[in-house]
Design brief:
Chain lengths: 147, 147
DNA sequence: TATTGACCTCAAGTAGACATGAGGTTTTAG
DNA sequence: CTAAAACCTCATGTCTACTTGAGGTCAATA
């Protein structure tokens, strides 16, 4: 009980499996100290770190991305400017995803009784068959490409 | 040019690879008609469907989930009540994710100059070492489990 | 001190989401 | 009509994010 946590402790308290913690360590998302017998010991701050990883993952962010952001999150020392930068990057990415989801949700909301997303060229709402003209307003989603 | 689209057309216009379209079809997310020669032909509405899939995926929603929602989205006939149900389910899930991301973002914002997420038990802001007491307010994230 | 439960490493397996390639068929443009 | 481009199926490969298992070590407690 020297104020550190074993893998088992962290697993129980964070809700992730021991194997997952090993994996995260291998991938560089978390770190551990070791006892003489090579067993992992963690600082309590690991719990927050794991919580962040879980939330971000659940939000669909890959471990690679999470790692790249967490790397600017050292366990001990951190400069305010480091923090500022990291924080704003996370924010930007999160905002982008939030926006994307919100748009999707609203897009879905905007269709009233058919299976299409546009009132414009929906076969149900367009019984005279005015399709095939590729008018504007129908491609908002299609052209939403990204790098 | 009989008003249908080939896989290549769909690939070009939707921005996903042909192999991906094959895969989506195999997994039941999209359907196709076939020519005598067994080649796929799609109705134009495929473009929206694929757009939805892409957006949802980008938002971190699995194909399994997307499929389960799209299944209530038949190409031709759809009842208003079907739509209502699907729409509200998507909404609920999207709202959940949006909330999750927003919380994560705000959590990150709430820390000022250290690597922890809580002002409460941050080693930098808590130099007198009042740790190890497991007081309330420090476990919001940790206890955020779910099925 | 002995033993049992927790840990360790390393290799291999799994599931989701595609990409690639082989070998062959269909379409379409000249 | 013919040749190239586009398709087809089916098998296999890849990457991510883990899980499982074998074989062995550590540590806490009775």
């Amino acid at each position: 009980m020297d104020n550190t946590l074993s893998v088992g402790d962290v697993a129980r308290r964070s809700g992730v499996a021991v194997s997952t913690l090993h994996y995260y360590e291998e991938k560089g998302l978390i770190q551990s100290l070791r006892t003489q017998g090579k067993q992992r010991r963690y600082h309590r701050s690991i719990l927050r770190r794991v919580a962040i990883i879980r939330i971000a993952k659940q939000a669909g962010i890959s471990l690679r991305i999470i790692k790249s952001h967490l790397e600017k999150f050292p366990t001990r020392e951190v400069s305010p400017s480091d923090w500022q930068q990291m924080s704003s990057e996370w924010r930007a990415m999160l905002n982008e995803r939030i926006l994307s989801l919100t748009q999707l949700r609203d897009k879905l909301d905007s269709c009233i009784g058919c299976g299409c997303l546009s009132l414009r060229d929906c076969p149900l709402r367009n019984p005279e068959d005015k399709l095939g003209e590729e008018g504007p307003g129908a491609r908002i989603l299609e052209e939403e490409r990204q790098s």
